[in-house]
């Protein structure tokens, strides 16, 4: 496939490999149905449950997950390549410590001494693309050579199995998992283009509530969870249907490829309806838009790297093909897309 590289003249940066980790044994939907309650929201397509998902153990930390997800990269590229990482970016859905980020502890566990360490929160379900954009910018403008980006989704087990939460319509949808990507300043699997957009007008539409006046850090009754109203769910559906194709098409236009000619499209996976609608908007058949929703549920930021790793290990990503990634975050306050000329190891 012919394409135009809009970044000609700048140092090429490649996504040379991905790896992932899923905690524990699969958790069936029957775990949630025993607690389900009569709820109008259960009929909303936003909350149609997958067949399975994974949950982190109570004492399994985000750093544990990142360390386990990175192990295959160490096997394939060697301990020295990972320990010499220059840039470390992490995203954790549910920070283990609200004061500290995961980055420094990840670096200690993996025997790294990176010069740039950032814990990124606002990218949400698009964090993998967001961190690729940030890592590429650092690699291009400094003498840094390598970057590790890591997305840990770890809120499904701790949050959505709470006694007051597990009966809600949205409880069976999320799953836990972790995905990582290795970026290197070379031309082996070049990132062709990245688009990141922030929509601050939507930032207030997602709320974290204890179902009362209590702040989440204050003592008292009430269990914390992201809250939805039917009107807000409708708005999120409308935005998500629009934002992901918009950023994906922006990248396709700049690299000179029609969206229908993309070899593989990987997105975040909030529900089956979004996945179908994005197929149609980009004029792609479902087989070119793989996902892990039925086995993993909504993996939030980890959805893209976990699916990429699953497809790569299965041999379904052909080296030299164009892989397009796109996602939106939260209630639509952020969206991002990236295209890569695939060439990852497996």
TrEMBL record:
Molecular function via GO: 3-oxoacyl-[acyl-carrier-protein] synthase activity
Annotated ranges, domain Beta-ketoacyl-[acyl-carrier-protein] synthase III N-terminal: 118-199
Keywords annotated in UniProt: Acyltransferase, Transferase
SUPFAM superfamilies with a match to the protein in the record: Thiolase-like
Pfam families the record matches: ACP_syn_III, ACP_syn_III_C
Listed InterPro entries: ACP_syn_III_C, ACP_syn_III_N, Thiolase-like
Listed GO biological process terms: fatty acid biosynthetic process; secondary metabolite biosynthetic process
Domain Beta-ketoacyl-[acyl-carrier-protein] synthase III C-terminal as annotated: residue spans: 252-342
PANTHER family: 3-OXOACYL-[ACYL-CARRIER-PROTEIN] SYNTHASE 3, BETA-KETOACYL-[ACYL-CARRIER-PROTEIN] SYNTHASE III
Protein name: 3-oxoacyl-ACP synthase
Source organism: Nocardia yunnanensis
């Amino acid at each position: 496939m012919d394409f135009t590289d809009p970044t000609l003249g700048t140092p090429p940066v490649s996504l040379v490999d991905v790896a992932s980790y899923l905690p524990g044994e699969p958790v069936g939907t029957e775990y949630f149905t025993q607690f389900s309650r009569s709820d109008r929201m259960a009929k909303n397509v936003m909350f149609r449950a997958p067949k399975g998902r994974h949950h982190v153990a109570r004492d399994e930390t985000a750093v544990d997950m990142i360390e386990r997800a990175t192990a295959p990269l160490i096997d394939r590229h060697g301990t020295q390549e990972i320990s010499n990482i220059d840039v470390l970016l992490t995203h954790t859905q549910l920070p283990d410590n609200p004061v500290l980020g995961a980055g420094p502890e990840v670096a200690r566990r993996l025997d790294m001494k990176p010069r740039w360490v950032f814990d990124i929160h606002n990218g949400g379900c698009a964090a993998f693309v967001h961190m690729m954009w940030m890592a590429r910018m650092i690699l291009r403008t400094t003498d840094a050579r390598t970057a590790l980006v890591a997305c840990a989704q770890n809120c499904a087990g701790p949050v959505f199995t709470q006694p007051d939460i597990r009966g809600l319509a949205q409880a069976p949808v999320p799953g836990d998992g972790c995905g990582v990507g290795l970026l290197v300043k070379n031309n082996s699997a070049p990132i062709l283009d990245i688009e990141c957009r922030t929509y601050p007008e939507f930032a207030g539409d997602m709320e974290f509530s204890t179902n009362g006046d209590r702040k989440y850090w204050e003592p008292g009754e009430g269990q914390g969870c992201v809250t939805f109203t039917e009107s807000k769910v409708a708005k999120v559906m409308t935005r998500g249907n629009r934002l992901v194709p918009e950023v994906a098409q922006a990248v396709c236009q700049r690299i000179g490829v029609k969206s229908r000619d993309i070899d593989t499209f990987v997105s975040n996976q909030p529900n089956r309806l979004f996945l179908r609608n994005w197929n149609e908007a980009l004029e792609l058949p479902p087989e070119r838009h793989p996902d892990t929703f039925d086995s993993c549920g909504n993996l939030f930021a980890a959805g893209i790297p976990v699916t990429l790793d699953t497809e790569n290990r299965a041999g379904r990503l052909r080296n030299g093909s164009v892989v397009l990634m796109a996602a939106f975050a939260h209630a639509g306050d952020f969206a991002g897309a990236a295209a890569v000329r695939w060439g990852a190891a497996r």
